[in-house]
Amino acid sequence: MTSSRTEPKYTVPGLSTQDGGKVIDLLRLRLHALNDLSLTLKHIHWNVVGPHFIAIHEMLDPQVDRVRGMADDIAERVSALGGVPVGTPGTLVAERTWDDYEVGRADAIAHLGALDLVYTGIVESHRAALAEVGKFDPVTEDLLLEQLRSLEQFQWFVRAHLESSGGVLTTAGARTESQAAHAAERDGAQ
After folding, report:
1. CA distances for 180 relative to 124, 126, 146, 162, angstroms
2. Which helix or strand (DSSP H or E) is residue 106 part of?
3. Can you give the pTM of this predicted structure?
4. β-pairing, 48-49 with 106-107?
5. Which of 4, 54, 61, 130 has its CA 20 to 30 A from that of 157?
6. HSE-CB of 101 using CA atoms within 13 angstroms
7. Where are the domains of the chain?
8. Alpha helices in 81-107 (DSSP H)
9. d(CA 179, CA 141)
């Protein structure tokens, strides 16, 4: 991961430039994660097939729109803090800490299995950033908390397709998106 850590020349009143720089650094990775998530959701939207196609296809567009709005909110917060939000693909790829989404054209349930793992990663990293910024910036903390509400709800929508009536999640124990996709597809067929 490339680090472009620089302390801003100014930041919002009541926050030191040093703390502003810390928040900017945390938000830079959140911006990359949200931009990546919006592209991944569109990839799934375009490549989902099977009997659940239309339900999943239509479920994803509102998520894409909301995630794009989240990225915009993060970028604007970075600017307000005196930073420079960079949303270019090259920077995203150079600085991200995760690999590309693994699944191409696949059954709806397979994509949802993989997407469940994607959402787990996003939610966990948003929570970690939330805990860190909560130490010194309640405004950014509030922004991330609001986003977590939506991200967790979107994961719940996904998991509703992957959970048995007995409460067992078909993707439990999967470590990769491919494993989760295969587990969801296998258990969804039974």
Report:
1. 17, 21, 28, 10
2. strand 106-107
3. 0.93
4. parallel
5. 130
6. 28
7. 17-189
8. 89-95
9. 34
For helices 138-160 and 108-133, angle between their N-to-C axes, nearest 10 degrees: 160
Q: How many CB atoms lie within 10 A of CB 112?
A: 30
CA distance 87 to 41: 17
Residue 89 has which token pair?
A: 């693909």
Phi, psi of 154 (to 5 degrees): -65, -40
Tokens of 146: 């609001």
Give the domain 17-189 fold: Ferritin (1.20.1260)
Residue 107: which H helix or E strand, with range? strand 106-107
Sequence-distant (6+) residues with CB within 8 A of 125 are: 29, 30, 33
Q: pLDDT tens digits, residue range 56-73?
A: 999 999 999 999 999 999
Q: What is the DSSP string of 9-78?
A: S---TTS-HHHHHHHHHHHHHHHHHHHHHHHHHHHHHHHEESTTHHHHHHHHHHHHHHHHHHHHHHHHHH
Residue 49 host element (H or E) = strand 48-49
How far is the C-alpha of 162 from the C-alpha of 160, rounded, in Å? 6
Q: pLDDT tens, 93-122?
A: 999 989 999 999 999 999 999 999 999 999
Contact of 155 with 105, CB cutoff 8 Å: no
